[in-house]
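Task: complex structure prediction.
Instruction: return structure tokens for all chains below.
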Amino acid sequence: MRLLTHNMLSSNIKGVINGFPLRIEVEKVIEKQVDFNPDFLKNMFSKIDWKALADASKIMGYAELPEEVPDASVLDSDEFLQKFHHALLELHLEEGALVCPETGRRFPVNKGIPNMLLHEDEV
Amino acid sequence: MWYLCVFYHRLLDYRKPEFEALADLFGAFDNNNPSSSHSLEWKLPEHHHPDSPFHFVNLPSEDIARNIANRSILVKGVYEIWGEGSSYEELKEAVNSYPDDRKLPYLTSDSTFRLIVDRFGKAISFKDQTALIKGMSYIPFKGKVDLRNPEHKFWLIETDDYESNNGLPPIVDKRVFFGREIGGADRKLLPTYELKSRNYLGPTAMDAEVAFLMANQAQAMPGKLVYDPFVGTGSILVAAAHFGAMTMGADIDIRVVRDGRGPDCNVWSNFKQYGLQMPVSLLRADNNLPPWRPGLKEIFDAIICDPPYGVRAGGRKSGGRKLLKGVVSPYTVPDDKRTGHIPSTAAYSLAECVHDLLDLAAKMLKPNGRLVYFYPVLRDNNDTIDVEFPKHPCFKLIASCEQMLSYRYSRVLLTMVKIGAYTDEIEEIARVRHMEFRENHVKWMEEGNLHAAVFSPEFLGGEDLDGKIGKDPKKKYRGKYV
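Output:
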């Protein structure tokens, strides 16, 4: 699971109001190289919840992203785009879990696939 | 400028929509003009039936024509026509009167060329081909002949004055075209991607040709994000990734998305096999209760899918069968059994599935984003499909392409473009409808039971047929392969 996915997911258990961001429990992080595509990154930038991405990348062991939401002008900087690219697409949570911030429910991540299916009493 | 477009004679309904989707992608339409119709001007050669593979199309430039033709799957070729006629004498006259400044730049002595003879509906012997090529010697070709890799390809195309073969109504006049090829589909893709050589397959993996058509309808290209909520073995996303799009997929069956059939036989390996960019994300999620964070919207450029409609494979959603029928009350999972618990799922009716899909697309697609999906349709005796396709206030249906699957049913590829914003009001209507589906689970499962309609021993409305199924009113050429 890449951090782009983490940035899009929330706990949708019935009754949960603040299901985002999911806390990441890390067991195994791997890095996979992905082709760099500035257009894709520029498209994604406005959709990303920055704080959630910066925090998540820190947990995954990459602390290069600014804490504060950067101004859109940084998109002209290749250095920034490379960092954004690395955090968003190249860090993979291979084994671990996503934890609902409100209820503590663990959504397991195995072989890189988050299992977001709810139990019977959560729908 | 007008070009001759010759299609492969298959998937007839898909030909023009594919061409127009690509025309839009390559900038053939004026996007600043909201009243622009986003459809092209088409013209048939004289006496040709609309199902004929020959069409004239008006395009703003040769570059656009080339881009469309080379990216398409169903365009055999797009040609700049130098002349046409109902006989070779007429053709000669027409080619000779075609302006020299359009011809000479392609006939220079430092160029290489090839002349190809083709006839629709009939083979031409090698001897006749040579004779026909020699007959074109009135064109001042100065270049060198190169059969393998010519700079310019010229085509001499005949439509035979066949009777009723090909299944098309007879054409009264024979027509001969001579033109310069601008571009054509790379059909070599199809053997490369064909399913029989794919590592990981499921029972409903999408045929490579149709998957490419879907990706073209969705205008997949580098920089775009394409999502499939029923990803299965990834057969549709493979096509989108081939065109350079970033892909993302979800499925409710974790065995399919996570495990596959081993380390080298899973969804990832299907992308690796072709050297494609891996999906950005694969996850297990229920399309009925999508796990997207609140506030996330307009992130996908396209959503492409083949929803489970209960004929070859049924959909599943969260919540037990008995629970939704109201037979049992919700099962509370004991705390010590939560890890590794396998939640029960219930069948997912087509109506609800499509409702969820449209709601998801309305919210998650960017403005002008495209939703491309198959919708099943039962056929009646009169060879008509009289159905209302799903509607949504945020979407405009721009293409519907039928593919007959059996005597009783077809699937229709629908392409919808997002034209309106997802408002709070639309969201609220969708929420109410979602609850309605939950409460009337049983009713919807019965009403939407396509499986029974498709596979029941008696044909629906069998009274008219009087047991004689032998009289097939459908045109034969729309059978198995087209």
